[in-house]
Structure formats: C-alpha cells, structure tokens
Specification:
Elements: H1 5-21, H2 26-38, H3 42-62, H4 67-79, H5 83-96, H6 101-113, H7 117-130, H8 135-147, H9 151-164, H10 169-181, H11 185-198, H12 202-214, H13 218-231, H14 236-248, H15 252-265, H16 270-282, H17 286-299, H18 304-316, H19 320-340, H20 345-357, H21 361-374, H22 379-391, H23 395-408, H24 413-425, H25 429-442, H26 447-459, H27 463-476, H28 481-497
Helix pairs in contact: 1-2, 2-3, 3-4, 4-5, 4-6, 5-6, 6-7, 6-8, 7-8, 8-9, 8-10, 9-10, 10-11, 11-12, 12-13, 13-14, 14-15, 14-16, 15-16, 16-17, 16-18, 17-18, 18-19, 19-20, 20-21, 21-22, 22-23, 22-24, 23-24, 24-25, 25-26, 26-27, 26-28, 27-28
Protein name: Tetratricopeptide TPR_2 repeat-containing protein
Keywords: Repeat, TPR repeat
InterPro entries: TPR-like_helical_dom_sf, TPR_2, TPR_rpt
C-alpha cells in the first residue's frame, strides 16, 4: 500500500525513468496518474490519465482483440467521469473474455456511480465467481449493498474482504461509514482506532473527530482534529470543522481564530466567512455578522446557506423587506438541492428551515416530516418539528417532539426555551418560567428566553420586573424586536394608568 508521500515520490521518479524508454506505454501512464492522484496532484494526474487513454486507443487500433486494453480504457474513462463511454469498453472486454474479473469489477463500479446498484451487484457477483479471494471486489460489493441501505450484508462483505487482507483500510473505512449511518458511534470509533493503528493518516483522525462530533463529545473531537492538522496543517476543511466545534462549546474566540487561519490560507474560502458570521451572530455582533456574510455572498452569491444567513440577519435588525428577498432566493436554491437529493434528510430539513424563516409553517411541517421519513432519529429535525408545531399552536404535539429532542441533547438552551413557549400555549406558566430559567442558565445570552420571562411577568401584572427583563434583552441584542415591542406596550400601559 503506497499511501506514504515519500513512497509515491520515489515511484513517480521510477515511472518517469521508465517512460523515457517506453513513452507510448498506456499502462505506465495509467500508473503514473494513479500515484499522482494519491499525492493530491489532480491536474497532473488527469493529464497522465489522458495520455494513457491516447496510448490505449493506439493499442486498440493496432489490435482490437486485446481484452485487457479495452478494460483499462474503460477504467480511464471511468476515472475521467465519462461513464457512458466507459461501459461499452467493459462490455467489449467481456465479449472477448467473459472470465476477466477485472472487467466485471470495474463495470460494477461504473454501474454503482450511475446509481444502478442492482446491476452493479450482478457484476460483482460474476467477478467473485472468477476471483473469490479478491478483497477489492468484496469491498465494492459491500459499497453497492450500502448504497441500497442493506447495511448488515454490506458489513459482512467488508469483513470478508478483511479475511483476505487484514490490514485493508478501505474495508475499515467503509465499515465506519456504515456504523455512522446506523448511528452506532461506539462501534465506528473502535474501527477508527483500528485504522489509526494501521495507517495514522490525517483522514483517519479527521473521521474520528467527525464521529466524536456526532456524539457531542466535542473536546475529544477537537483532540482528533488537532492530530489530523498535525499531518495536514493547511487543510481548510479541517480548520473550519475545528472552528465549528469550538463554536459548539461556546469558545467563540478560538472558533474565530480557526476561521481566520482558513482565510489566510485561502482568502476566497466563503465557508470560513459564513462560519465567522454565525459566530458573530452568537455574540450578538450583527454588524460583524453582516460584514462577514456579505463577503461570503460576494464569493458565493448562489449558495442557499449564505443567502439564508443574510436574510435571517436582515430580519433580526428589522429590515424585513430586504430580508424576504434573500430568504426567497435561499429557498429557490434549497429546492434545487432537494430535487438533486430527494432521499437526503438534510436537504428536506434545510427546506423546512427556509420555509420557517419565511413564516410558511404548514409547508415547513410537510418538509420536516419528509426529512424524518428518511431519518426518524435525526435529532435536529425532531427538535425543529417541535418548533414548527409550536408555531402552528399545536402545543401538546410540540411538547412530544421537544421532549424527544431534549432526551437526545439535554444541554440545549433553545430546546428549553421552545418547551417553555409550548407550555405557555397550554397556560402552564409556572412550569414555563422554570424552563426559561434553565434556558438562561445554559445560555445567559438567550434573549428569547429572557424576553419570554418578561412576557410572563407582564401578563401577571409585575410590570417593573417585566420592564427589567425586556431592557436586559436589549442590552444583549439592541435589535431584538419582541423586546422593543413589549417595552412600547409597557410604556402605553403605564401612560394609560396615569
């Protein structure tokens, strides 16, 4: 296994020497592209693959009965993402030699990326009949089964591959993906540790960090990302991930430092600017939040997340008309995302979020139901459904979903606030007040919970105390419209009593 960069460098030197005496050898160019790709030299690799394709075409023209060359040509076309052109090459290879497992394997892979998993499985089964101890074929079969959501059979295939080659990290990685999908995170972590023993690569540590993040074990996630960054210090995706993890544990300055480091490495990384905007939003610094989302918008004007954040911020500072334009554009691009990924729960959840921002709650409920149809345990969607049901004044149903979300994430300040609001709808004000207090304890800057306390005191005639909470809200967030509205109402009430 030539994962090590030094090994790849040496192999490229050797291949270049070989090409001096064999400049028209397609297989040598093919291998050069393979190792350049491993070294993340994508453009150089692509050029080598194109050169290999030229050589294979010459060979086929000279002798069209070389089944191995037809298969290799198909593989190059597959790598270049020309799947419709690749498929006839594999068919021609198998017509010349129906027992060529290599052609069956790669035809299966081609079917797989085209979304034709049943056809892919038939090809892999043919390949296994011919070469039953080829671990790579077992892995490819497992991937096709995973794509069909047949996770247990997929895992069995990956384990079969490991029977033939015990240190095959590709099989282990795919086991991690299965366990992650099944939310069996402890099992996923065990497999990550097995990978790290074999090959402590940056990607292995990155994946371990992702799993810890799914488990909300953020400090351990940060440790894993740090190990990954030691090996790839210039990885912008990692820096953004690390920054977002700091954000989750409310270490906002550390988060901003990570995003700034990403921007130094790539000044056009819109995601880092967007992430900075989210942090400044948490800090109630709407001027900086808008400044950073404006930069993200300048770099990526058709991104639904960027448009949605800008629309949300404009609404927060009272610019409703401008906000609506951006939110509607965000929804437009989210609808494209749903169209392209109709089975993806996150796409439907994004649609629900955009619809809520536009106050289209019935449509949002349908979208979040679709998200939960594809992933009934999607914790964010469960919590968000509770929020939508509250907006629709379905308070009892809302509580059911908010309770489920609470069990998954008991330290979520916003969840406590939402439950409190639902209880207000059920006229259970004492219980609601307790939840607002807990929400504020978890996040002292949660202006929604502070304002909600003020509303309860206003309703019970404790006007001075109510005013104190609304003013506290505006100290945290001077733009917070509900607090402004309630203060104006209090003013009218007190003036009317004079």
């Amino acid at each position: 296994m030539y994962e090590n960069k030094g090994c790849c460098d040496e192999l490229i030197i050797f291949i270049n020497e070989l090409l001096k005496s064999h400049p028209d050898n397609g297989l040598v160019w093919h291998k050069k592209g393979f190792y350049l790709d491993k070294m993340d030299k994508e453009e150089d690799a692509k050029n080598s693959f194109k050169k290999a394709l030229e050589c294979y075409n010459v060979e086929i023209e000279e002798n069209p009965n070389k089944y191995a060359v037809w298969a290799n040509k198909g593989v190059i076309l597959f790598i270049l993402e020309k799947y419709d052109e690749a498929m006839p090459c594999f068919e021609r290879s198998l017509k010349l030699n129906q027992y060529y497992a290599y052609a069956w394997k790669h035809m299966g892979s081609c079917y797989g990326v085209m979304g034709k998993n049943d056809e892919a499985l038939k090809c892999f089964d043919e390949a296994i009949k011919i070469s039953p101890d080829d671990h790579e074929i077992w892995i490819d079969k497992g991937i096709a089964l995973k794509n069909k959501n047949d996770y247990y059979k997929a895992t069995a295939c990956f384990n079969r591959a490991l029977d033939f080659k015990a240190e095959n990290t590709r099989a282990y990685y795919n086991k991690v993906f299965v366990f992650e999908t099944l939310k069996e995170y402890e099992e996923a972590l065990k497999v990550c540790d097995q990978i790290i023993k074999i090959d402590p690569s940056s990607y292995a540590w990155y994946l371990k960090g992702i799993i810890y993040g799914r488990m909300r074990r953020y400090r351990e996630a940060l440790e894993s990302f740090d190990e990954s960054l030691k090996l790839k210090p210039d990885d912008i995706i990692l820096l953004n991930l690390k920054g977002n993890t700091f954000k989750y544990i409310k270490k906002y300055q550390e988060a901003l430092d990570c995003f700034d480091n990403a921007i130094v490495l790539d000044p056009e990384d819109y995601n880092a600017y967007l992430n900075k905007s989210y942090v400044f939003e948490k800090l109630k610094d709407f001027k900086q939040a808008l400044k950073n989302v404006d930069k993200a918008f300048e770099l990526e004007p058709e991104n639904n997340w960027v448009l949605g954040q800008k629309g949300y911020l404009l609404d927060e500072i009272g610019k409703t008309d401008e906000s609506t334009v951006f939110l509607e554009n965000a929804l437009k691009y989210t609808l494209k995302e749903v169209e392209e990924n109709p089975d993806e729960p996150y796409a439907w959840a994004n649609k629900a979020s955009d619809l809520v921002n536009l106050k289209r709650y019935q449509e949002a409920l349908k979208a979040i139901n679709k998200s939960l149809e594809f992933d009934p345990e999607y914790d964010w969607a469960i919590d968000f459904k509770g929020h939508i049901l509250r907006k629709l004044q379905c308070y009892t149903d809302s509580m059911d979903y908010l309770d489920k979300a609470f069990n998954l994430d008991p330290d979520n300040s916003q969840n406590r606030y939402e439950k409190g609001r639902a209880l207000c709808g059920l006229n259970q004000f004492d219980e609601a007040l307790n939840l607002f207090n807990k929400s504020i304890e978890l996040d002292p800057t949660n202006e929604s919970a502070i304002c909600a306390k003020g509303v309860i005191f206003k309703q019970t005639g404790k006007l001075d105390k109510s005013k104190e909470y609304f003013e506290n809200c505006l100290e945290i967030n001077p733009y917070f419209q509900p607090a402004k509205k309630n203060l104006n109402e209090l003013k009218s009430m007190t003036e009317g009593q004079k």
